[in-house]
Design goal:
The complex is a heterodimer of chains A (121) and B (281). Chain A is of the alpha+beta class. Chain A is 55% helix and 17% strand. The relative contact order of chain A is 0.11. Chain B is elongated and about 110 Å long. Classes of the chains: A alpha+beta (121), B alpha+beta (281).
Chain lengths: 121, 281
């Protein structure tokens, strides 16, 4: 008489386990959309290029003759166009010993606050 | 009798067995319908609301892009489940709030600078049908409230900020406008764009000068608890600048915040108003 062979029951058990693991994976996938949103947000929010543009313009204008007007203009433009508070002071080369220009730059757009002490070459 | 035990089936009835098993199945179905199904529905409502909270933050990002990133036009497709998304523009009846900013004596810091000038932001509001919850995108912030409770909570903050290095206070106000009254259920596309140049004004507040900010909640929609938490606690103005607060949030009455320039230099007060036009929902 043929005996009952239950060697392959693990296949059914594994199927059961895998189907349950799908259930938990579904929960994790459901949560992941929120994470993606916040990460993308913080990347967009970070004003790296704004700060680069700004330091570029400020350092370019340190040596110009009309730099006193520019010092007044840039904060106004930054506030109205980029919604950021910008203040900076430029210290021109003082004596024959020190040939460097300096710029103290302050930037704040409510999310990112940035201060730089720039020195010319 | 035999020595070996024989199986005795004299007490076994097919009918009773059937009844037992069938009874169990019926009780099982009954339990699931009575308790399981409402629970599932509730979960669905919860999921709809969670999705909508996220959607509102996406819409807030759109507004941010328009206002602060000089993007001209924004469009977002979203699924509005378990309720409706409605635009209440700044001139709609029964606004959820209005605010005024002045120096406590005569003038207003808001255009047209006359006494008692009030700014009404308008809102994009999602009203959940089954759980009686409202989620609203107003004045650059996302706020949530329950219909029955007096409390409310802010899910995403507006971008008001204070810069200590330059003693500058920036208040960004966002006003919603629209051609018509619009509402949507199901899949919708929210299109928005900036109208005109943003209003921009810089005022010097002298040392010890006052700023009075009045938040006046609407008669039917009261988000004053959320805004009170933001203005009085979360907004990064220094503690020494906060003089006192008059009124109780959550009661439907106006709350007045008295602020004072306690710094050693005149404070720059920057007020910007962005007018966002909702073209369609």
């Amino acid at each position: 008489m043929a005996r009952l062979n239950d060697d392959a029951q693990w296949i059914i058990l594994m199927g059961f386990l895998i189907s349950f693991s799908f259930f938990f994976l579904a929960i994790i996938i459901n949560q992941s959309t929120v994470v993606g949103q916040t990460t993308a947000e913080s990347v967009i929010e970070f004003p790296k290029n704004d700060i680069r543009d700004l330091t570029g313009i400020i350092t370019y204008n340190t040596s110009r003759s009309n730099s006193t007007e520019v010092v007044r203009d840039i904060p106004v433009i930054a506030l109205s166009r980029k919604n950021a508070i910008v203040r900076y002071t430029v210290i021109l080369p003082q004596s024959p010993q020190d040939t460097h220009s300096y710029a103290l730059i302050h930037y704040n757009n409510g999310v990112t606050e940035y201060d730089e002490n720039w020195t010319s070459l | 009798m035999d020595k070996t035990t024989r199986s005795n089936e004299s007490g076994v009835s097919e009918a009773i067995g059937f009844m037992l098993i069938f009874g169990m199945v019926i009780v099982g179905i009954g339990l699931v319908t009575l308790y399981g199904y409402p629970l599932l529905l509730k979960q669905q409502v919860g999921a709809d609301e969670k999705i909508m909270e996220k959607n509102m933050i996406v819409l807030q990002n759109d507004v941010k892009s328009l206002a602060y990133k000089t993007v001209p036009f924004k469009e977002t497709s979203l699924k509005i489940g378990g309720g409706a998304l409605t635009i209440h523009n700044s001139s709609a009846a029964n606004p959820s709030s209005n605010i005024s900013i002045d120096n406590g004596v005569v003038a207003s810091y808001l255009p047209p600078f006359t006494v008692n000038t009030r700014f009404t932001p308008g809102e994009l509001r999602y009203e959940s049908v089954s759980s009686q919850t409202d989620i609203s995108l107003q004045n650059g912030a996302v706020v949530l409230r329950q219909h029955q409770a007096s409390g409310s909570v802010m899910l995403a903050e507006p971008r008001w900020f204070f810069d200590t290095a330059t003693n500058t206070m920036v208040i960004n106000l966002v006003e919603f406008t629209s051609e018509t009254i619009m509402a949507k259920e199901g899949i919708g596309t929210v299109q928005m764009s900036l109208t005109g140049e943003p209003y921009y004004n810089e005022t010097l507040v002298p040392m010890n000068g006052n700023i009075t900010l009045t938040y006046n909640p609407g008669t039917t929609q009261d988000y004053s608890v959320a805004w009170d938490n933001y203005i009085w606690n979360t907004w990064n103005i220094p503690q020494s600048y906060k003089t006192y607060r008059f009124g109780t949030p959550g009661t439907g009455n106006q709350v007045i915040y008295y602020l004072n320039n306690a710094g050693s230099t005149p404070m720059t007060l920057v007020i910007k108003i962005f007018r966002v036009n909702i073209k369609s929902i």
